[in-house]
# Entry
Amino acid sequence: MTLHSTEFSQKIHDPDQPLLKVDGLTKRYGPRIGCADVSFDLYPGEVLGIVGESGSGKSTLLSCLAGHQRADLGRISYDGRDVLGMSETERRRLSRTDWAYVHQNPRDGLRMGVSAGGNVGERLMAVGARHYGDIRGKAVDWLGRVEIAADRIDDRPTAFSGGMQQRLQIARNLVTGPRLVFMDEPTGGLDVSVQARLLDLLRGLVRDLGLSVIIVTHDLAVVRLLAHRLMVMRSGRVVEQGLTDQVLDDPQHAYTQLLVSSVLQV
Amino acid sequence: MTDQAYNFAYLDEQTKRMIRRAILKAIAVPGYQVPFASREMPMPYGWGTGGVQVTAACLVPEDRLKVIDQGADDTTNAVSIRRFFQRTAGVAVTEVTAEATVIQTRHRIPETPLTEGQILVYQVPIPEPLRFLEPRETETRKMHALEEYGLMHVKLYEDIARHGQIATSYAYPVKVEGRYVMDPSPIPKFDNPKLSGNPAIQLFGAGREQRIHALPPWTKAVSLDFDDHPFQTSKAPHDCDLCGARDSYLDEVITDDAGGRMFVCSDTDFCAGRRAKGHVGRLGEAT
# Structure
């Protein structure tokens, strides 16, 4: 397969160096604050959860990190490279090779008019794969990894259930072997049993592939299962951060205490 | 009387200058879609308003014009555009490919090889090859600018997945000089090899979409494909029933309601030329 080998090779990264360094990131919508003065480091293989209520700026933060929106202030460095200072060509290449973005609504992340195989193959073809058999082989392999039967490869996502669509979106994103995955409410809109299977799958993939993940959610159960570290946001600012269990079991900030105590116990 | 009221070739000189600038830019950047201020023409969109404007901008009184529609010189579209320029420009017209200096075409490249000095003008309905893959025009422009053409292959992938082969048979995308991906207008993919390294100037005009793109002479245009599913031309597996040609693109003609059919060259000038030289097909009569 004629792939740009440099783009595909998993660079050996020093596990003691952060993969992503964010410093003083600020995004305003006119006089309103989207998110303000957010700083954190993300290490290879680490899963960072961002929680907060609607309007707390967590989605704004994620889209600034992923380059979908331009931040007003601050610095983002990925693997030693300045993300905000990059040319658009470079950033878009990064976002289809080294990065992945899982949308809350699979319809935003999938091409609904294209078969499952085509959806998974798109990123491969975007980085130069030109051998149909190889692309299809990889697509079958990835559909298997996200528990979609191989005989569904030529079906369109419109024929899939919500949970299958979400798994397909994950396969489509992970096929080029990204190192950093952004997830925006990946389990939103799914019923609890499907959610549980998806979380299980995600946990397995993250562990097996050594992915670094930034996951935005309002569901504390999701971060409890997936995230190593947790950031709590309110009104665009980070009010508390720490190890997930520590933050959830012993919340310090009043808002975090409110958030944790608001969870319904079954 | 009213014929004298028009400027040479219908359009006013300022408009023709504007179109010529767009054409020059298109030739300078092969395969790139240059926007131009397309005018209302006295014919509906879809009838070749883009091609007519490009032809009008190229014509000089000494030109000899040929107009073809799906290869034929005698169909409505070809006849009316030819008459339009006879009336408004008074140029000589011809049906013989080799004699023409400007050829306006809809959906075919003539079988007779073109030569240096000829201009082939295509009527283009949709110049954007990515249109049905990515609906946002802002995004497709960015994709052209950044050379992100993976999506084009997704379309071909879908063809193979669904039909076992690349089923796209017309408007088959080509990559021009290793840079821009271009839609060659709905010519059959049988004609795609003729796009590449052609000695004539090839101009593409899209009136409704207000775009002009071009292939300068001797430009390389490679049809997109997969390593294990290479590009292949296709035509009906028959010989021409009138002239017996084996290597020309054929139209299927239903001749009765009992399953009778014949295959004839879509290029009427090519077919007539062969018959004049004495070639006879299955159903043809010696002339």
The domain at 13-127+175-220 of chain B is CATH 3.40.50.11310 (Rossmann fold). The first helix of chain B runs from residue 13 to 28. The longest strand of chain B covers residues 64-69. DSSP finds seven helices and twelve strands in chain B.
